[in-house]
Amino acid sequence: QVQLVESGGGLVQPGGSLRVSCAASGVIFSIHAMGWYRQVPGKQRELVADITSEGNTNYADFAKGRFTISRDNAKNTVYLQMNSLKPDDTAVYYCTADAVATYAGGIKRDHYWGQGTQVTVSS
């Protein structure tokens, strides 16, 4: 089982910046990829960005040019730097990991989720 703990959310003004972080813990054998999704009430959870252990990145169209995802594999941590924030960026941001870890006495590869951190963009 992998535990993902997000931090860094908060309230920012339009045009401002924020960096959210996510640290993975547990008996982890490998992490293939980590990423960020976001969700607004009444809407589907959507991909923001993800990054593989090799450093390959993928961004949603709304994030390109404004957001930057990075990771520290040694710390099992992923970051999302968000610049030029807009009110439409307001959402709960969830960390995710595609990882191999201990589970129920064995090991398995699974897609894990954090509890989310609120990002609010408002003046």
Please explain how this structure is put together.
There is one protein chain. This protein is mainly beta and 123 residues long. It has no helices and eleven strands. The chain has strands at residues 3-7, 10-12, 18-25, 28-39, 46-52, 57-59, 67-72, 77-82, 91-103, 106-113, 117-121. Strands 2, 4, 5, 6, 9, 10 and 11 form a seven-stranded mixed β-sheet that branches. It has a four-stranded antiparallel β-sheet with strand order 1-3-8-7, with no helix packed on it. A hairpin with a 2-residue loop joins strand 9 (91-103) and strand 10 (106-113). The N and C termini lie far apart (40 Å).
Keywords:
elongated, 7-stranded mixed β-sheet, mainly beta, 4-stranded antiparallel β-sheet
Layout of secondary structure:
Layout: E1 3-7, E2 10-12, E3 18-25, E4 28-39, E5 46-52, E6 57-59, E7 67-72, E8 77-82, E9 91-103, E10 106-113, E11 117-121
Parallel strand pairs: 2-11
Antiparallel strand pairs: 1-3, 3-8, 4-5, 4-9, 5-6, 7-8, 9-10, 9-11
| Rg, Cα atoms, Å | 14 Å
What can be said about the biggest beta sheet? 7 strands, mixed
Structural class: mainly beta
C-alpha termini separation = 40 Å
Tell me the fraction of residues in β-strands, as a range. Answer: over 45%
Shape: elongated
Nearest-integer average pLDDT: 96
Order of helices and strands: EEEEEEEEEEE
Number of H/I helices: 0
Helix fraction by DSSP (H/I, runs of at least 4) = under 10%
Count of DSSP strands: 11
Residue windows where pLDDT falls under 50 for at least 5 positions = none
